[in-house]
Design goal:
Radius of gyration: 35 Å
Shape: elongated
Number of strands: 4
Largest sheet: 4 strands, antiparallel
Strand order of the largest sheet: 2-1-3-4
Order of helices and strands: HHHEEHEEH
């Protein structure tokens, strides 16, 4: 709940900054420039009294003031746009983390439920178990798959899960994609080791020569 509030606040700030950027860009086009603040003149610089302070200071023309105002307006636009983009990135990251946290909580709830499902045997990590539902509404685990039952399947099949060594459950439909990915990574590691081994052999051969 706290994460949702923080994300909403960030999005509100981001929207406000975005509107400011758009307004700043419109002001630049319409020449609605900000007030220019100049450095104060000192009549006694470094403790020395000036005879004529106006003679040693540059007189700013209206063109110079306009250029300064445009530069300030441009800097404001860049600062607001940069802040807006950073807030957007932070909000997107927090939204992703929120979704990940929700996924973890849902998986934990599912795993806890599966561990409390009726079962007449001791479950072993690494094995796949099949979840059925009786007409009474009771769910239970069985080691017999729907394919083994065939047409005589007596109960509704809800799903099949593999018990992992960390006591979590993995749906059977995710096993093929996960195992395929693991096999690809293993194959890449083997090929990399073989390439490294061949390079070492070539180096050793050159040293012998």
């Amino acid at each position: 709940m706290l994460a949702v509030i923080i994300i909403n606040n960030i999005y509100i700030i981001w929207s406000t900054m975005k509107r400011r950027v758009l307004n700043t860009n419109n002001n630049i086009k319409g020449e609605m420039l900000p007030e220019v603040v100049l450095v104060e003149r000192s009549e006694v610089p470094l403790g020395q009294q000036l005879l004529n302070s106006y003679a040693v200071h540059k007189t700013s023309s209206s063109t110079d003031l306009l250029e300064l105002a445009r530069e300030i307006q441009k800097a404001d636009s860049f600062v607001q746009a940069t802040t807006c983009n950073k807030l957007k990135v932070i909000a997107d990251q927090m939204m992703f983390l929120k979704q990940q946290a929700e996924s973890v909580l849902l998986e934990a709830k599912r795993d806890d439920h599966l561990h409390h499902v009726a079962c007449n045997f001791q479950k072993v990590p690494g094995k796949i178990y099949h979840l059925y539902k009786r007409s009474s509404g009771q769910q239970f685990f069985s080691i017999i798959s729907p394919e083994e039952w065939g047409a005589s399947l007596p109960h509704e099949h809800i799903g099949s899960y593999r018990l992992e060594h960390d006591m979590s459950w993995t749906p059977e439909e995710k096993l093929n994609s996960t195992e395929r990915r693991d096999n690809i990574l293993l194959l890449k590691q083997v090929l990399q080791l073989e390439n490294n081994g061949s390079k070492v052999s070539d180096t050793e051969y050159m040293m012998i020569e």
